[in-house]
Design a protein that fits this description.
The complex is a heterodimer of chains A (499) and B (500).
Chain A (H helix, E strand, L loop, with lengths): L7 H9 L5 H19 L2 E4 L1 H16 L11 E5 L26 H8 L3 E6 L33 H8 L5 E5 L6 H7 L2 E4 L20 E5 L2 H11 L17 H7 L6 E5 L9 H16 L3 E5 L4 H19 L20 H12 L2 H14 L5 H24 L2 E5 L15 H5 L6 H6 L2 E9 L6 E8 L4 H19 L14
Helix pairs in contact in A: 2-3, 7-8, 8-16, 10-12, 10-13
Chain B lengths: L4 H7 E12 L38 H13 L3 E2 L6 E4 L9 E4 L6 E12 L2 E16 L3 E5 L11 E5 L6 E7 L9 H19 L11 E11 L9 E6 L2 H20 L7 E5 L6 E6 L9 E2 L10 H9 L5 H12 L3 H9 L3 H10 L3 H19 L9 H12 L5 H12 L5 H8 L7 H14 L1 H8 L6 H11 L6 H11 L5
Parallel strand pairs in B: 11-12
Antiparallel strand pairs in B: 1-9, 1-10, 2-5, 3-4, 3-14, 5-6, 6-9, 7-8, 10-11, 12-13
Helix pairs in contact in B: 1-4, 3-4, 8-9, 8-10, 10-11, 11-12, 13-15, 15-16
């Protein structure tokens, strides 16, 4: 019997054999959202009407014998950074309040074409800048494992929705860890595909050279199924890769890592990593060894500079990407009383429309790109990027995939890093190198830290366009851990009020 | 005492720099598939990409790259094996993304030159203008400022924005410093822009209509005391919208700057706007504090890496060089050097060739365009080619050849066509300009002339042929100039027993 706690693949099977309908599934998830979202606050907008229409359409097609894609009829939560035609798309910012895009992002077009039911838009740090969802203009999302804690960020809404069983699938975007770190702290699975693997058309840009949309799910196979729906070349995104999509579903089903070399990154496990995080990470390593993989230690010395370089490149690009929010064409407009000049209205709008973290990064980036500073800041950061790629290349010469803890700590308390942006930035220390090099990265749960009983994420990194390798290792590790735990990690999560 | 141009260039050496923006005539925009058609209803040729909507991404128009490479090749540039787009970050209300996707330190074409010819006191001389770079960028939208006295944004009641133009592919062609022109700076500037326009037209990559803005020229000019070997502070004059204006803008700036220098004032580095009416420039925004455009490589686009075989293929398709073509046409039409240079510099070569191709006599075609049409264009301060078409001029010439029009009548026809009264035939009908070729009507007039000057008629009868002039004049007067004088002469002499 399928329930909202089932995986997407189980739900798909139940749909296929007529055990349930998409409308029933969709209504079931809205019922759950009704019960728990007041506590979790994963969603910013629900499109019940659209979702139920899509569900009914898929059910009708199924009934008439039309061949459907594997995830047709399955509900999904969409991060509010992706444009969906006619549906409010805010990026978690006041600036875009009330804006309804006149077009679908490519990811959304593909989801719709696959018959996936988009339940609504999920909360996020404003313009995807943050690691806790606390920077949303629309309130913080709470971690279903502990409502006083953050669900990670920027895609905390998507991961929290999965962990609270409000949706079996979600889409996130990952610029420095915004899919993987929320997955880690909510005990779910999140994948950042190779840069260019999924079209960015309609993904509202934070940092164009780093942003990448990817699948979020509760199992590796579900993530793989969703990955294959959204991936592929798009002629509307020049940076999308014109090559066949890696066979990630097949890889996720392999459940075999015999003879594979797993590179353990020396630089991503020392100081600053919580002890429970490290111990669960090592349990993961042990499980892989038990499954027949070979561990090799690899060193990536440039990783020490990755965070600093990231905080030059991402703000620089964001300072340019966000320049278009000037209150003239869309979004809010403040103070247009007929007496103020366009410039004054723009100033007021930006003052009120952008939150402090966004302003901080715009200022940082504007400075870093300024004449006279470009070479020292943006230019140097790009060089670090090249060195990071070299580190990765050298490491991938020794190992098929690389592994590390996804985040240095488990979910911290809401408000804990309010006055310390640097401490907040450090959450992404293990995820950022992947974005900087444009390779693939996955986070899957590897247990609960002894000291706080909160989920720990295990990160697998694969070479560019070899996303299949991380799914192969991830699928195998997941199977080993599930049999060890006797069921999904989320079964250990506290029951939310109403459930 | 203020200096005039001749006095100015006796004291100061001008240095030029020319930046020409050309709208390519691709069917779709630089980074999206919207139409580039001119004159559509506002904001009907837009999409998420050229409106800069959140999330939209640019994709380079391959045809635009091809056109730009062709331009680079025709201007003897090297084509960069690797070039990139960059973001030029600045605010302008009609720029949807608040940055312009352009090229910065890695342009697609570099280091070329263009040879032009100028008329000097010592005859026609060649002059080489060196090209710094040719790069691609996108155009902005258009603002219309409503209300207020100046039509500018300051003081306007409100502004309307039309994004149809936003994202139309632009190519910017920048010269190196053009020195050593001496007093011929205005001619060099005009000859360069003219030659460039002809090349672009021959390549078929742009409409190159300066009046419609598909080709725009910024004139950088500085002065330094002759012999000082220095470079003065430059001004950048925009809004130079015709070949004639290019020349006038240089003259205007030379005069303005020389008088400031003469008075001991300094030249402010600034943008100036050319005023069509006065030929003067007006101060725009100051560039004293250099704007910081925070250029960085456009992360939404991949580098342009043209295949060298493709470049060679494009090189092979280059049309006949305008200079080669000029030499060929000059020989075919047997035109003297000086007149050929005038034709070229007036931008009349194409229309003259077209007029001749339609069937007009080369000498007549040239003289109509260079003479009457240019005179009328000068009066109106517009480009002659905008006034009348080659086929209309050819038609007029053919009507003269057939005796249906006299030169004098033809001038009236041309004037009528230019005044918008219709085609030559319509103007002839409307104004009643037909040559009086009806022998009966002419004979009546001849008889009247003879009756009023019997003594003269007698002298002609007696063999004094030149005396016929007075009678012919009287007939012409009586017919309002619409008679063909040769025909009148023939009939008159015959009537008075002197015809053969």
């Amino acid at each position: 019997m399928t329930t909202i706690r089932s995986s997407a693949s189980e739900m798909a099977a139940a749909l296929a054999n007529g055990e349930t309908t998409s409308v029933e599934l969709t209504e079931g998830h809205y019922a759950q959202i009704e019960k728990v979202d007041a506590q979790v606050h994963a969603f910013l907008y629900l499109d019940k009407e659209g979702a139920l229409a899509q569900a009914a359409d898929v059910d009708a097609k199924r009934k008439s014998g039309v061949e459907l894609s594997p995830l047709a009829g399955i509900p999904l939560a969409l991060k509010d950074v992706l444009a969906q035609k006619g549906i409010p798309t805010t990026c978690g910012s006041k600036m875009l309040e009330g804006w309804r895009p006149p077009y679908d992002s490519t990811v959304v077009s593909k989801l719709k074409a696959a018959g996936i039911v988009i339940l609504g838009k999920t909360n996020m740090d404003e313009f995807a800048m943050g690691s806790s969802t606390e920077n949303s203009a629309y309130g913080v999302t709470h971690n279903p494992w502990d409502l006083t804690r953050i669900p990670g960020g920027s895609g905390g809404g998507s991961s929290a929705a999965l962990a609270a069983f409000e949706a079996p699938l979600a889409i996130g975007t990952d610029t420095g860890g915004s899919i993987r770190q929320p997955a880690a702290v909510t005990g779910t699975v999140g994948v950042k595909p190779t840069y260019g693997g999924v079209s960015r058309y309609g993904l509202i840009a934070f940092s164009s050279s780093l942003d990448q949309a990817g699948p979020c799910a509760r199992t590796v196979l579900d993530a793989a199924l969703l990955h294959e729906v959204i991936a592929g070349h798009d002629e509307r995104d020049s940076t999308s890769i014109d090559a066949p999509v890696p066979q990630v579903v097949k890889a996720a089903k392999k459940l075999d890592v015999k003879g594979m070399k797993i590179g353990v990154v020396k630089e991503l496990q020392g100081e600053g990593f919580q002890s429970g995080v490290l111990s669960k990470f090592h349990e993961g390593l042990d499980a892989l060894v038990a499954a027949g993989a070979e561990l090799v230690e690899v060193s990536c010395p440039t990783f020490d500079y990755a965070l600093a370089a990231y905080y030059l490149i991402a703000p620089s690009e964001c300072s340019s990407n966000l320049a278009r929010f000037d209150s003239m064409r869309y979004g809010i407009r403040i103070g247009d009383d007929g007496n103020r000049s366009a410039e004054e209205v723009m100033k007021l709008t930006r003052h009120e429309g952008f939150g402090p973290e966004v302003k901080r990064r715009i200022i940082l980036g504007t400075y870093a790109l300024s004449s006279g500073y470009y070479d020292a800041y943006y230019g140097s950061a790009q060089k670090v990027r090249t060195l990071l790629m070299r580190d990765f290349n050298a490491a991938f010469a020794q190992a098929d995939v690389l592994v590390s803890p996804t985040a240095p700590t488990t979910a911290f308390k809401i408000g804990a890093n309010d006055n310390d942006p640097l401490a907040m930035y450090l959450n992404d220390i293990a995820t950022i190198p992947v974005n900087m090099a444009g390779i693939g990265g996955m986070s899957l749960p590897c247990g609960l830290a002894e000291e706080d009983g909160l989920p720990v994420g295990f990160q697998i990194m694969s070479p560019a366009m070899r996303d299949d390798l991380m799914y192969q290792v991830g699928g195998t590790l997941e199977a080993a851990l599930l049999s060890k735990w006797g069921g999904p990690l989320l079964d250990k999560a506290p029951v939310l009020a109403g459930n | 005492m203020s200096l005039n141009y001749d006095q100015a260039v006796e004291k100061y050496e001008p240095t030029l720099g020319l930046e020409v923006h050309v709208e390519l005539n691709t069917k779709s925009k630089m980074f999206c598939s919207c139409s580039t058609e001119f004159g559509g209803a506002p904001n009907t040729q837009t999409c998420p990409v050229c409106l800069g909507l959140p999330g939209a991404l640019p994709v380079v128009n391959g045809k635009a790259i091809e056109s730009t490479i062709l331009i680079g090749l025709a201007l003897n540039c090297s084509i960069a094996p690797f070039s990139r787009f960059a973001r030029k970050n600045y605010f302008y209300p009609d720029m949807p993304k608040n940055f312009q996707t352009s090229q910065y330190d890695e342009p697609i074409c570099v280091n070329g030159y263009l040879d032009v010819e100028i008329e000097t006191d010592e005859g026609v001389k060649p002059f080489r203008v060196e090209i710094e770079r040719v790069h691609m960028e996108e155009d902005t939208g258009k603002s219309l400022h409503v209300g207020g006295a100046t039509g500018r944004i300051h003081g306007a009641d409100y502004s309307l924005l039309d994004y149809n133009r936003a994202g139309i592919p632009l190519v910017e062609i920048v010269t190196k410093i053009v020195g050593g022109t001496g007093k011929y700076a205005p001619q060099v500037a005009r000859a360069y822009v003219t030659e460039l326009r002809d090349i672009l037209r021959s390549l078929g990559v742009s409409d190159v209509k300066m009046e419609q803005g598909s080709m725009r020229c910024d004139v950088n000019l500085s002065l330094a005391p002759i012999g000082s070997g220095e470079l003065g502070t430059r001004s950048e004059t925009k809004n130079v919208n015709s070949l004639r204006s290019v020349e006038r803008a240089v003259i205007g700036e030379v005069v303005r700057q020389s008088n400031r220098l003469q008075d001991g004032e300094r030249i402010v580095q600034e943008t100036r706007h050319f005023q069509e009416e006065s030929g003067q420039t007006r101060s725009g925004r100051s560039k004293e504090q250099a704007e910081d455009y925070r250029y960085f490589p456009e992360p939404d686009l991949v580098p342009v890496v043209p295949d060298s075989a493709w470049i060679e293929e494009l090189r092979a398709t280059l049309p006949e060089k305008p200079s080669t073509r000029r030499a060929r046409l000059q020989a075919e039409w047997s035109v003297p050097d000086k007149e050929m240079t005038s034709l070229v510099n007036a931008g009349l070569l194409d229309v003259v060739e077209e007029t001749i191709t339609i069937g007009a006599d080369p000498t007549r075609a040239r003289s109509w365009w260079l003479g009457e049409v240019s005179r009328l264009a000068n009066e109106r301060e517009v480009d002659p080619t905008t006034l009348i078409t080659p086929s209309q001029v050819a038609e007029v010439i053919s009507l003269i050849a057939s005796g249906d029009l006299t030169d004098k009548l033809a001038r009236q026809v041309v004037e009528g066509v230019i005044a918008g009264e219709g085609t030559p035939v319509e103007v002839i009908a409307e104004r009643g300009l037909k040559v009086v070729s009806d022998d009966g009507a002419l004979m009546t007039a001849i008889a009247a002339a003879i009756a009023s000057q019997p003594d003269t008629a007698e002298r002609v009868r007696g063999g004094n042929i030149p005396a016929a002039g007075a009678l012919i004049g009287a007939v012409m007067k009586a017919t309002g100039g619409q008679a063909d004088a040769a025909k009148v002469r023939e009939l008159l002499l015959k009537h008075l027993g002197q015809g053969e």
